[in-house]
Amino acid sequence: MSSSFMPTCISKLTNSTILLVCALLCFSFTSTEAYDPLDPNGNITIKWDIMSWTPDGYVAVVTIFNFQKYRHIQAPGWTLGWEWSKKEVIWSMTGAQATEQGDCSRFKGNVPHCCLRKPFVVDLLPGTPYNQQVANCCKGGVITSWIQDRDNAVSSFQISVGSAGTTNKTVRAPKNFTLKVPGPGYTCEKTKLVKPSQFVSPDKRRVTQAVLTWNSTCTYSQILAQQTPSCCVSLSSFYNDTIVPCPTCSCGCENNITQPGSCVMPNSPYLASVIAGPRKNSFTPLVQCTTHMCPIRIHWHVKLNYKEYWRVKISITNFNYRMNYTQWNLVAQHPNFDNLTTSFSFNYKSITPFATINDTAMLWGIKFYNDLLMQNGPSGNVQSELLFRKDMETFTFEKGWAFPRRIYFNGDNCVMPPPEAYPWLPNASPYQVISILCPAMAILVSLAFLLAYA
Where is the COBRA C-terminal domain positioned along the sequence (predicted)? Predict the structure, then answer.
């Protein structure tokens, strides 16, 4: 075998090996961006129920179910889009409306509500006349989370579709659902034919059934929703004077030179004009200039230590000048939540993502009291205190045990300080050695001085 053959063979082997390794990597690792360990089965399900046929199409009820434990859709609400499989049009809608009509010039006489191949639909606002409403509509697109308010974790509208099939065999499902809340974040699966939905009458004595039902399941990814985090956590305790701030640049860095308008100082003379400027309706946060640049900061303070109990104070501050957070919620992980005794001025619900471990709690505001977190300013703050019973087998203030493991705000994972920055107990302080060494050195120096001049 010639020597020139060996490098060629090795080169081919190397290339083949690289391709094989790349292929294995692609198939071995799956994306976990949309996976939430605290709510692994959480999703938003879009159900499309055909209720009856019309001369050129059908009438359907479209329902959006929020099966997520703590992630909700707040104002200005959802926008639902899809793509028609054929040349369907929307003749009319009740409980919602298409954002654009499109080109309906091919129709004479009656003009459809929307002729777009890819329509987008929004919920109607509260106060809509009753003859334009259906059940579970007209809330401005706001859908609560499953735990906060199960009755309002659903939104519906009725749609009359034309230029479509008129039988189970000729009708086609809409495809490529898009759910905006109002920005991105949700990815919807392919529409599936499922068992027809059943509906129980108000007196619960009769059950009716849809002619045909399609489902599409949408899952949330924080990475798709935003490029940077939206909240951070700061820490403090009664046993240490150190206040651990949010990590620097948690949600971005202050840089008004290259990115003018990224933040504004609260004492700026131009504050009012910036807030009411041309981008006042923008969903891009306009935050107060801080080291962390987050719209939301959660502060966890270990407040008091009793014989059988210990107490924590939680404060939520809104640094966003453009957003009032309606029906906000907070999810925290801590091993002592199985012994939570009282939550003052916040609602509380155990989530228990793992059946045998009760270490996750959902907290949210009391209706008409503190369920609205106002935009940045004197009112942009809500707070409560938690009282825990001590379990003497596990309770300790050492090694940061008293601080949360993870915190979510409105379903988004917040940036935590690094563990080494947590407030230390006085007897665990790195300065303890110095405090003991100094008196010892003073005594040795004094002894040496006395011996020298004895």
Answer: 230-423
Q: What is the pLDDT of residues 395-448, one digit of tens each?
A: 999 989 999 999 999 999 999 999 999 998 876 544 443 344 445 555 565 555
CATH code 3.30.70.380 for 44-224: no
State the CATH class of domain 227-423: mainly beta
pLDDT band of 452, cuts 50, 70, 90: low
Structural tokens at position 251: 């949600």
For residue 443, the cross-strand partners are none
Please give the C-alpha separations between residue 351 and each of 40, 147, 148, 338, 384, in angstroms, as whole numbers: 12, 9, 11, 11, 19
pLDDT in tens, 289-332: 999 999 999 999 999 999 999 999 999 999 999 889 999 999 99
- 178 vs 201: CA distance, rounded Å: 31
Per DSSP, helices labelled H in 44-162 are none
pLDDT at 236 over 60: yes
Residues 93/107, Cβ–Cβ less than 8 Å: no
Q: How far is CA 101 from the centre of its chain?
A: 32
Cα–Cα distance, 149 to 199 (Å, whole number): 21
pLDDT at 261: 65
- Beta-bridged to residue 357, according to DSSP, are 354
Contact between residue 345 and residue 325 where contact means Cβ atoms under 8 Å apart: no
| Calpha distance 431→450 (Å, rounded) | 29
* Location of each CATH 2.60.40.290 domain in the chain: 44-224, 227-423
Q: Tell me which long-range contacts 435-443 makes (C-beta under 8 A, separation of at least 24).
A: none
Rounded distance, CA 99 to CA 220, Å? 24
Q: Is the separation of the CB atoms in 337 and 391 below 8 Å?
A: no
Question: Which residues lie closer than 8 Å to 31 by C-beta, 6 or more apart?
Answer: none
User: What mean pLDDT value characterizes the chain?
Assistant: 85
Distance CA 60, CA 212 (A): 9
Q: How far apart are CA 316 and CA 298, in angstroms?
A: 5
